[in-house]
Amino acid sequence: MVIAWNAFVVKFKLSPSDRVQQFKTRRDKFFRSTIRGAMTNVHEMSMAGKVRCAVEMKDECPFCYKGIPSMQANQPNLSRDLELAKIRLTELIESSKDKQALRIQAVLAGNEELRSQLDLIEQQTSKRIGRQLNYLKVSPGTAAASRALVVDASKTILGIGTMSVNAMTCGALSLRSLTITQVVWFFAETRGTKRAQNYTKNRKQMDAVKRAKRNTEWIVERVGAEARAQDLRAVKKLHGLNTVSGVVETVEKFEETAASAFKSVSHLLRQLNAARDLVNRNSAEALTFGLISRQMMLISVLSILPGHLWGSAIVFTPEEFTLEKIKTKLYAIVGKKSKEEIKDLTDMASVNHMDTKAQTRARQQMRCSRRYARMLQLCGDLKTWWLN
User: Percent helix, strand and coil across the chain, each rounded to 5?
Assistant: First the structure.
């Protein structure tokens, strides 16, 4: 096990002192990836279940180090395990032949005693196998697959050329014993590894071909797109936007941008600056100067905004009337308001009437005061008449 573990962790480039700690963290992967790890796992499961060792071969287990002071000094090798597995497999095949001979003899002679004796032996074997399966949770697999595995293992290990159907059936039952399972696992894993390596190699070649094909298609498409873009630029340069009609079209786009609904003044200035650069580039080749200056662009922006908002802040001089300064002043005045929000600031209706309820109440108070004054006047006149 130590040899297998050292071979397993050699790719991690660890010192011998660090491998003990790595074994605790990577033991599950070690159990799954190597046959030695699988056999070690079976041995530990048997010891945890407090039963006889499941990989026990005859009187001893290659993983039970009883009476051995140093595990590293007395390591069992794989050849010893295979030799013991050969002996066990041979005994099982011979016992299966003996059982079949007893059954045939019992059937022919009609001997009930022999038949009952054979049934008792089979029951004891089934109980022993069942106990191992219960503790170790090993799935036996289908009968057909078990027969094929036993035939393959017997031909490879023991050199047996032919096996009877009854012997294969008994071998399928004995495959549940983990001693034979070790042997079958070893050769099945070897075949599976080679098959997986070939599949991986072919898959990598196919992936490389697909990647090369995709890269070629991408390069062809990219080159074609660049060629089409160059042709389009050449056509536009000769018969496009640098003509009078092209310049008029770009100026119309500039005006549409100025009249559009903007999110903020800074956003409007960025869009107008890009449209102005396009107009000036297309007109510079023919006219040798730009049609729209920065000052003209700023005038277009100020014409959109209400004059009473910026009239007292803007100074129309060469030093003050620049893009950076005008942008800073407009941002201080309107902030990040959109066109609709700025328009709402100017849409103010004049108030030329009073509230109806307040007007009615005032009239009532006025009428009451007039009636009271009239009554006082009448009372005074009546008093004067009475005294006279």
Answer: 75, 0, 25
CB 173, CB 125: distance < 8 Å: yes
**Rounded Cα distance, 362 and 294, in Å:** 60
Ordered alpha helix ranges (H), 158-241: 165-174, 178-239
How is residue 178 written in tokens? Answer: 């983990």
| Amino acid making up residue 182 | Q
Structure tokens at 74: 């007395």
Residue 284 tokens, joined: 């510079």
Domain segments of the chain as ranges: 1-76, 77-191, 244-346
Query: Please, which pLDDT band fits residue 72 given cuts at 50, 70 and 90?
Result: very low
**Cα distance between residue 193 and residue 9, in whole Å:** 19
Tell whether the model's pLDDT for residue 2 goes beyond 60.
no
List all residues 6 or more positions away from 120 whose beta carbon is below 8 Å from its beta carbon: none
Residue 60's DSSP bridge partners are 57
What is the total residue count of the chain? 388
3-class DSSP state of 187: helix
Residue 60: what are its φ and ψ, rounded to 5°? -150, 155
Q: Which residues contact 105 (CB under 8 A, 6 or more apart)?
A: 111, 114
Q: Work out the angle between the directed axes of helices 244-259 and 265-287 (0-180°, nearest 10).
A: 170
CA distances from 152 to 91, 160, 296 (A): 17, 10, 93
Pairwise CA distance, residues 149 & 55, whole Å: 19
Whether 143 contacts 178, CB under 8 Å: no
What pLDDT does 339 receive? Answer: 83
pTM: 0.30
Please give, one letter per residue, the 3-state secondary structure of 277-306.
HHHHHHHHHHHCCCCCCHHHHHHHHHHHCC
Q: What is the DSSP letter of 12?
A: G
Between CA 370 and CA 364 the distance in angstroms is 10
Using one digit for the tens of pLDDT, what is the confidence trace for 237-289?
555 555 666 777 778 888 888 888 888 888 888 888 888 888 888 777 767 77
